[in-house]
Amino acid sequence: MKYKKLILSFIFIFVIGTLNIYSQESGHNDAPQKHNDEKLDIVEKVADHNYVDFYFFGKLQLPQIPKVHIGNVTIDFSVTKSLFMMFLSSIILIIVLVTAARKNTKNRVPKGVGNFIETIIVFIRDEVVVPNMGKEGLKMLPFFLTVFFFILFANLIGLIPFMAQPTKNINVTTGLALITFTMTQVAGMKKYGVIGYFKGLVPQGVPVFVLPIMIIVEFIGLFTKPFALLMRLFANITAGTIIVLSLISLIFIMSWAGVVIAVPFALFIDCLEIFVGVLQAYIFTMLSVIFINMAMHQH
């Protein structure tokens, strides 16, 4: 059952996080854009593409799938750089977790990678899930661990040369936030029922004349929570990339003086990005636990 939950969680992340939906009425231009390779366009480097740029090693063109048209909506299932990085980070994650599980099965005392992974799992269980949800939250521990490890590896893979963080794509962070939003609503409705859950969103004892305003505020509050999740993760990861690229651009502007200034600061920001990647995975998981717990314990 635990493996089924993990597999379903990964499938959910892939389907929602990488589904690019475009409206034909929005004026989306499918014509290929021409880029000047002689210039460092920071926005162009941060944006998603249908290729992975290895710079002087060349470009890896990703497979493109014909778009699906449903009425006025066009759905693009083509493989993009973000999707490629998601699969790559997930494959690395699976290899690391499987290796850790096998080592922990053989060794009575966890060692190496097994010990490192077990430490993280115990931390998420004892310091995040149980203090906020109690033992009732252990049933959802596989989901929280999946979210944490996926975001962690997706954040850190961008620190490898030529790689990129899929979490700097707002479609990916939106998918992750929608998963938490869905789990939150399902957990609340499962405990109180559909009517009881929505009825409990409004605090008891509210005056009648204030009730219409409170209903609107609480309804909006349902969507502000996942919006805060997706924007926090997207903004923090994207900001680090833009800062590094901005520093590197000083080399082209200031020549050798730019090297002296840019390289040390870029290395510092890269080291800081390791901390930010771990922190954002922790914050996303912690807030997911809190939001789900609030839905299950409305009082």
Number of strands: 5
Strand order of the largest sheet: 1-5-4
Total count of domains: 1
Overall pLDDT level: 81
Computed over alpha carbons, the radius of gyration is: 22 Å
Strand residues, percent:
5-15%
Range of helix content: 55-70%
Largest sheet: 3 strands, antiparallel
- pLDDT below 50 for ≥5 consecutive residues: which ranges? 14-40
Backbone shape: globular
Structural class: mainly alpha
Number of helices: 9
What this model shows, in words?
- It is globular and about 70 Å long.
- The protein has 9 helices and 5 strands, in the order αβαββββααααααα.
- The chain is mainly alpha-helical and 299 residues long.
- The longest helix has 44 residues, at 211-254.
- It has one domain (2-25, 39-296).
- The relative contact order is 0.12.
- The protein has a 3-stranded antiparallel beta sheet, with no helix packed on it. A two-stranded antiparallel sheet has the order 2-3.
Summarize the structure.
With 299 residues, this protein is mainly alpha-helical. Helices cover 67% and strands 6% of the residues.
Topology:
Elements: H1 2-17, E1 20-23, H2 42-46, E2 51-53, E3 59-61, E4 68-70, E5 73-76, H3 81-106, H4 112-133, H5 141-156, H6 170-192, H7 194-200, H8 211-254, H9 256-296
Antiparallel strand pairs: 1-5, 2-3, 4-5
Helix pairs in contact: 1-5, 1-6, 3-4, 3-5, 4-9, 5-9, 6-7, 6-8, 6-9, 8-9
What characteristics describe this protein?
299 residues; mainly alpha; 3-stranded antiparallel beta sheet; two-stranded antiparallel ribbon; 5 strands; 67% helix
